[in-house]
Design goal:
This protein is α+β, with helices and mostly antiparallel strands. The protein contains 13 helices and twelve strands. A six-stranded mixed sheet has the order 3-4-2-1-12-11. Strands 5-6-7-8-10-9 form a six-stranded mixed sheet.
């Protein structure tokens, strides 16, 4: 086989490899468009989009050295993926400092999955620990998660996996910390695995429960600087991995356990992923119908969606009238879940109405398996006169 033939074979192989990489990358970029009830493969691919787009960038660089014409394939792929790429990694570099007048009509909004107020750095407490932890709380040692929230002092906080009332208990809520919480957040609604703490008046809405026991949401109507606003704190269905599943995932990521064991583990994990994708899609549609039935223009949906930006469930929620606070005000890629080697952004804040996200921040506070996220919202016009009666809204019978 002469040199010319070898070069021709390598060239064909290069074009085929680039073409296949382009196809997979595009499928990952737009996997959230496909209904997971049809097939969950695109949704799973979408979670791996950062990996494929990184390979595509490497392919462009390599092709420029060996075959510039071939570089057109990954180059065009990057252009076609620019929308999903900017959604995954927005580039909002410049942030103009708010004027005093703008500051007066802005507010901060935090969303945080608090891991049941347990400390992720420590082993989960057993019933035998209750007495000791309660004594620690009485002695003044306070829950690190709630202490962090009090220190940051956002105007509104949506909490997920928040199962307990705020009182001194084995979650180490000290009396002093409880006083601070009550002082900073005089308006509190707690239930359905969520909590909403607010400096502004909030009124609970009784909504039908989501179908799966690992999915729950809480809704309130808030008076924020005179603007009637619907706030939904949501926790969509998790994958539901047990300890054995996590062990299998560790084996897969480490390449241990043998080919047969890894194959079986992949099938088990993919089955759970597929079910979770389908259920989240149904839950998102249900929440969207509830939001539409209430008929309020200003809406904020925040929480642990257990899925990435532009996934099918978020598309069902957002449709064409909601924006992502991260996309509009964030900068660079973000990871909000950091446990079990699942490094993804699965916590989100969506909004619509007469407000704009002007800042987005992820805190590197690791006492939960999630990181807290926070947005500053700015009202796009001066607040109207306050309607404290919230006329025309049935706050209970929904």
């Amino acid at each position: 086989m002469n040199k010319e033939t070898i070069l021709k074979i390598l060239s064909i192989a290069g074009y085929v490899t680039n073409g296949l990489l382009s196809l997979v990358t595009l499928m990952a970029a737009y996997g959230g468009v496909v209904n997971p009830e049809t097939t969950s493969i695109p949704a799973i691919l979408a979670m791996t989009f950062p990996f494929w787009i990184s390979l595509t960038v490497i392919a462009v660089i390599a092709d420029l050295f060996f075959n510039r014409l071939m570089a057109i394939i990954p180059g065009v792929t990057i252009i076609l993926c620019m929308g999903p790429l900017l959604s995954f990694c927005p580039l909002n570099f410049s942030r103009d400092k708010l004027t005093p007048q703008e500051e007066s009509r802005s507010f901060t909004f935090m969303s945080y999955n608090v891991y049941g107020l347990n400390d992720f750095r420590k082993q989960l407490p057993t019933p035998k620990d209750t007495t000791r932890l309660y004594e620690e709380a009485m002695a003044g040692y306070s829950n690190p998660t709630m202490s962090f929230i009090v220190r940051q002092n956002p105007d509104i906080v949506c909490l997920q996996e928040f199962w307990w009332t705020l009182k001194p208990n084995h979650r180490i809520i000290s009396p002093a910390l409880l006083d601070s919480i009550h002082s900073q957040y005089p308006y509190r609604v707690i239930g359905a695995g969520n909590g909403i703490l607010s400096k502004y008046p909030i009124y609970p809405i009784d909504l039908p429960k989501l179908e799966d026991q690992s999915a729950f949401h809480l809704a309130v109507v808030a008076e924020i600087q005179g603007h009637r606003t619907l706030i939904v704190s949501a926790h969509l269905q998790s994958i539901g991995l047990d300890s054995s599943d996590k062990a299998l995932y560790h084996e897969i990521t480490e390449g241990e356990g043998g080919r047969k064991a890894i194959s079986g583990a992949k099938r088990k994990l993919l089955s759970k992923l597929s079910k979770a994708f389908r259920n989240r899609a149904a839950q998102a549609r249900m929440i969207r119908r509830q939001i539409d039935s209430i008929g309020i223009d200003n809406v904020i949906i925040a929480g642990d969606f257990n899925d990435i930006q532009d996934c099918y469930a978020i598309r069902q929620l957002a449709k064409d009238d909601f924006k992502s606070a991260f996309s509009m005000a964030g900068c660079g890629p973000v990871i909000t879940y950091h446990a079990n080697r699942f490094y993804f952004q699965i916590d989100h804040i969506l909004y619509r109405g007469k407000l704009d996200a002007v800042d987005f921040r992820k805190f590197d506070f690791d006492r939960s398996d999630h990181y807290p996220i926070q947005t500053r919202f700015l009202w796009s016009e001066n607040a109207p006169s306050i309607d404290r009666n919230l006329k025309g809204i049935d706050l209970i019978n929904r």
